[in-house]
Design goal:
By secondary structure, the protein is of the alpha/beta class. It has helices at residues 28-39, 58-65, 81-87, 108-117, 140-145, 172-177, 191-200, 223-241, 244-257, 262-273, 275-280, 287-300, and strands at residues 3-5, 8-9, 18-24, 46-51, 70-72, 94-99, 102-104, 122-131, 136-137, 168-171, 204-215. Strands 3, 4, 5, 6, 7, 8, 9, 10 and 11 form a nine-stranded mixed beta sheet that branches. The chain has a two-stranded antiparallel sheet with strand order 1-2. 41% of the residues are buried. The model is unreliable at 1-10 (pLDDT under 50).
C-alpha cells in the first residue's frame, strides 16, 4: 500500500487492512451481483465467501467468475457459523461482514479501518444502511443514531449495545476473543449475544454515520422463517445473559406483544425445546451491563425496525 508520509495512508488505491466475509445460501444471482460490486471497490479487499450448501450452482459460479476470491464449501448450511469458518482464514486486522444481498459503498471500508486504527478498545463500527433500489434509509438507522447508551468521548459516534452483521466492520482479534457467533443460535439476531460478550470483556461498539452499506433485500427471503428464528433467538439470548427478573419480564412482554399466530407459536415451542442447553450455559451479566441491556430494551419497544412480523 502506498503512503504519503510515515503512518499516513493515502485516500485512494488498495487498502490491505480489511477482509470482507460473505455467507450465502441458494441466492446465486444476487451473490454474483454483490461480488461484482465488491470487486470494484477502490480498497480492493480480499473477499471470502462461505457457500452454505447451496443447490443452485452458487459455488460453481463463484469459482468460475471470481477466482481471486476465497470460496469455502463446508458441505452443509452453517448459518451464521459460516462467518466463523471464514474468519479462521482472515489475516487482516479487520473483517467486514456483508450478506449476499448487501454491499459496502466505495471508501467506507477504508474509513472504518481508520476509525478502528485510532481507537484500540473499539471492537466494531456499524454503518448507515441504505435500502435499494429506493435509496432510502433503513428504519433501523434511526435506532442506531439515537442509541440511549452513553460511552467515552473518543467513540466515533453513538455507543451501541449490539450490531448488524451485514453492516459492520469488526476488529478480527475482538471477534475471536468474543468466541464468534454462538453455534446454538445458528442464524437470526445472532449478533446480540456476541455483542453482549464483547462488552463484558471491555470492548466498545459504535455507530459511524460516515460509513454506508447498501441493502437490496433478496426476493428469495423467507420472512416468516426469519421471524421464527429471530424470536427464538431473542428468547434464548434473554435466558443466556439476562438476570432472572429481567429475563422473566422480557419473556412476559414478548408473550403479550408478539403476533398471536402459528409463526410465534413455533418460535416459542422451539425456544422451550432448547431451554435445557440454554440453562446449562446460562451466565447472567453483571449489574452495569444489565442496565445497558435494559435501556436498549426500552428504546427498541417503539422501534419500527423491531417488529416480529412477516
Amino acid at each position: 500500500m502506498t503512503r504519503t508520509a510515515p503512518g499516513t495512508r493515502t485516500r485512494t488505491g488498495p487498502d490491505d487492512r480489511t477482509t470482507v466475509v460473505v455467507i450465502t445460501h441458494n441466492r446465486r444471482d444476487e451473490l454474483l451481483r454483490t461480488l461484482a460490486l465488491l470487486r470494484r471497490l477502490p480498497e480492493r479487499p480480499h473477499v471470502i465467501v462461505t457457500d452454505n450448501a447451496s443447490a443452485d450452482g452458487t459455488a460453481e459460479a463463484v469459482a468460475r467468475d471470481f477466482p481471486e476470491m476465497t470460496l469455502l464449501r463446508p458441505g452443509r448450511n452453517l448459518g451464521a457459523l459460516g462467518r466463523n469458518l471464514a474468519v479462521q482464514r482472515v489475516r487482516t486486522p479487520y473483517v467486514a461482514f456483508c450478506d449476499d444481498d448487501s454491499w459496502w459503498e466505495p471508501g467506507s471500508l477504508r474509513r472504518a479501518a481508520d476509525l478502528l486504527d485510532a481507537r484500540p478498545r473499539l471492537a466494531a463500527v456499524t454503518a448507515r444502511i441504505v435500502v435499494e433500489p429506493e435509496g432510502t434509509e433503513d428504519p433501523v438507522v434511526r435506532e442506531l443514531r439515537e442509541s440511549p447508551l452513553s460511552g467515552p468521548d473518543w467513540l466515533p459516534g453513538p455507543a451501541l449495545g449490539s450490531f448488524l452483521a451485514a453492516a459492520t466492520v469488526l476488529r478480527t482479534d475482538a471477534f475471536r476473543a468474543g468466541g464468534g457467533f454462538h453455534p446454538g443460535l445458528w442464524l437470526g439476531g445472532e449478533e446480540e449475544l456476541l455483542a453482549c460478550d464483547l462488552q463484558r470483556q471491555g470492548w466498545w461498539l459504535a455507530y459511524a454515520e460516515e460509513l454506508t452499506v447498501h441493502h437490496h433485500a433478496s426476493r428469495l427471503r423467507d420472512s416468516t422463517a426469519r421471524r421464527v428464528l429471530g424470536l427464538r433467538n431473542t428468547l434464548w439470548f434473554t435466558w443466556l445473559r439476562r438476570p432472572l427478573l429481567p429475563a422473566l419480564r422480557r419473556t412476559g412482554h414478548l408473550i403479550r406483544t408478539v403476533p398471536r399466530d402459528a409463526a410465534s407459536a413455533r418460535a416459542f415451542a422451539r425456544a422451550t425445546a432448547g431451554l435445557p442447553w440454554v440453562l446449562r450455559q446460562r451466565d447472567p451479566v453483571p449489574p452495569g451491563l444489565e442496565r445497558r441491556l435494559a435501556a436498549l430494551e426500552r428504546a427498541r419497544r417503539d422501534s419500527p425496525a423491531r417488529r416480529y412480523v412477516g
